Amino acid sequence: MLVPVWIWLVFVFALGCCIGSFLNVVVYRLPRDKSLVTPPSSCPSCGRHIRFYDNVPLVSWLLLGRKCRYCRTPISPRYFAIELLTGSIFLGLFILYFYTDVRKNMSPFQEGGWLIYLLHIILLATFIAASAIDLEHWIIPLSLCWFVTAAGLIGSSIGGMIIDPKDIGAYTLLPFASADSGALAAGATVGLLISLGLLTGGLIKRSYESDDAAHDQVKHEEGQTNENSSKSAGSLEEPHFNHRLEACREIVFLAPIVACACLAFWISREVGAVHAWWMDFTRDHFIHHPVVAGCLGSVWGYFIGCGVVWGIRVFGTFAFGKEAMGLGDVHLMGAAGAVIGPLPVTVAFFIAPFFGLAWAGFQMFFQKIRQIPYGPFLSLAIFVVMILHDLIQSRIGFIFYP
After folding, report:
1. Residue with the larger pLDDT of the pair 299 and 374
2. In the chain, where are the structural domains located?
3. Whole-model pTM?
4. I need a surface site. Which of 72, 157, 184, 386 has the fewest CB within 10 A?
């Protein structure tokens, strides 16, 4: 007997609210370098453990009158807002994907669509947490980005075993490499390993690395080094950097990645024996090797997502003489690219400034509103391109998927 639709909808919304409750734990504990598992949830003010009946998403916050049961300290409305937002996004995406024509080529839920939906809600839920942390601390913890990147790589790799690879390739349901993008992704991966080796060996220096031990301790306490810097790092004075020199260090780090990608592309096209083998291996866009095609497609999406933001960061730093965008944004977009692919993540990057301009206009009208970091705008743009996927593919898909 089929499960009634309304039960599915209620379940998805409730699941989203429960995930939102966990995201509140992530938002509070992760930037404070606390375990996400232990100890159990407790009131930050009085330290009393929160009982299970006081920890029901949405409901408990309302029934408790927005205050701790024991010390009556007000509970931030952020907890309710994140639970409601996460539940609404889970439900909204579920309805848009499986009960409307917004994504006409989406696989039915029982025939593999669940995998796409799972990857997308993992991405959006994690980015809700990253955005909330970014709003409060002006940092994006890299662990969140790595989690999404890993999910994208695994999901794209197994996608061809769950969904017909021909449908994945035809409708770009998941990242899926062509012969050219596969060669570029493989070469870029080799280049990244070389750059990381040079960095670990001390042959190249990490950008914005301070010798000030106290400053490094502040960065460690914030859970990252070399991400979006906090505007309120205490009374310690920020070290002085020659920003253009730091940008040059980042170019040195990126050079092996770009060089190896170009070299791999050239070899796959021009070296006779390799070209013949690669063309045979990738015939019909990897239909016969869906795991490799999916993995390389996700890797290529990661590099494109990182590259677009990192390129703007480097050029902006040279142009304005100060750090432009944070490395947290670079990893954020790289993670998104690993899940949604190179074209959508590129479009999302160019959509995000419109949300920034809208916020700036809102600020001009309500002058007491503070500045906010760029991560939430990028996350919102990613959500938009997920919904507009079919429109983007039909209009400009040929650029990335010849």
Report:
1. 299
2. 1-100, 142-211+240-402
3. 0.88
4. 72
